[in-house]
Fold this protein.
Amino acid sequence: MNIDVERDHEEFVKRENIILSSAVVVFEPVKHVAFFAGSGIETDQHKTLWIKYIGVEYAFIHCNDWDVSLEAGYINKELYDSFNFGVVIGRRFGKRLSSSH
């Protein structure tokens, strides 16, 4: 994916073949619905940006410790912000706080 980002109404920053990596914490207040937040980096051959990431997901398939979820998130970056929507495949690990999941 290649994009040009306008900076200061005159200067454009080219973003090519972007890789985004983040670490997030997840809070599941009710069954199947989780909120997450974290930070990380977005990098390409031109520039590396720090990001902040928040979102929500709804898990609709559960099999053993695996989930399939729909996700919506907001990513705040130094040069521009973005919204994302997607399908997430994830595995749960660690001790569960209750057996209701």
In short: The chain is about 0% helix and 75% strand.
